[in-house]
UniProtKB/TrEMBL annotation:
Keywords: ATP-binding, Nucleotide-binding, Transport
Segments forming domain ABC transporter: 1-241
Top-level taxonomic group: Bacteria
Organism of this sequence: Mycolicibacterium porcinum
PANTHER family the UniProt entry points to: ALIPHATIC SULFONATES IMPORT ATP-BINDING PROTEIN SSUB, TAURINE IMPORT ATP-BINDING PROTEIN-RELATED
GO molecular function: ATP binding; ATP hydrolysis activity
Entry-linked InterPro entries: AAA+_ATPase, ABC_transporter-like_ATP-bd, ABC_transporter-like_CS, ABC_transporter_ATP-bind, P-loop_NTPase
Name recorded for this polypeptide: ABC transporter ATP-binding protein
Amino acid sequence: MRARSLHKEFPHIGKGVKGAPAVTEVLRTFDLDIRDGEFLALLGPSGCGKSTFLNILAGLESYDSGELLLDGSPVRGVSKNVGVVFQSYALFPWLSVQKNVEVGLKVRSIPSDERHKTSQRILKTVGLENFAHHLPHRLSGGMRQRVAIARSLAYDPEVLVLDEPFAALDAQTREFLQNELLRIWESGARKKTILFVTHSIDEAIFLSDRIAVMTKRPGSVKDLIDVSLPRPRDDDSRASAEFGRIRGQVAQILKEEVEVGDN
C-alpha cells in the first residue's frame, strides 16, 4: 500500500462563522508506505485524521487529491481486497454467529456449502466454533469483537484495517484479544497486511512491526518508529527494557504535537 500527498477536506454544513474557512482540512500531504504482510499501527492526537485515512483506504471515504495505491491500482471505492473491523461490532442481532460471519460471502454470491465451510474454519481460527449458532446478544463484548474480526477474515482480504477495535473493552479482555489477534495473524500461511488505528501507545508497540505517528490536524505522518521486539510476543515483551524505550520515544513525539497544538 502506498499513499502520496493525500489531501482531504470536509465541508461545513449550514451557516458558519463569518470569515471562518468553509472547510475543515483533515489530511495534508499524507505520505505512507505499508509493506506486504506488515502490521502497522497508526497513532496520533485526537482528531488528527487517523480514522479518516482508514476510511479512505477501506473505500468508505473519497480523497480530494494525491495518490493511494493498493497492489499498484488506485483505491477509489470499496474493495474485496480490504477488510474492515470497527470499534462497534456492527453485527446483525437477528443472525447467528455463523450467519454473521457469512454475510460478506453471501453478498458475493458464494455457494451455501462453501460459505458454511469457510465460516466454520474461520470460527475455529478465532476460537468460537462452539458458539456458531448463538445470537450476538448472548456473547461477551470480546467474543462479539472476535465475530467481527472473523467476518472480515472470511472473504480473505489482502489488507485488514482495524479502527480502535478493542477500545471499549476492559483491560483484561483487551490484552487477551491483542494476543488473539497476533495469534491469528501469525498462524496464516501468508500474513495479511494490517493497519491498526489506536490511541494506546502500549497497544501499538505490542502489536506492530512499525508505528506511524501523525501530526495534529491537518494530519500527516510525522515519524515512523521501528518496533524491534522479537516475535512471538507475550507478557514478557511488555515488561522488557526495549518496550519501555520505545514507549518513551513515541510518548515524546506525541507530547510535542500536543504542545504545538496548544500554542
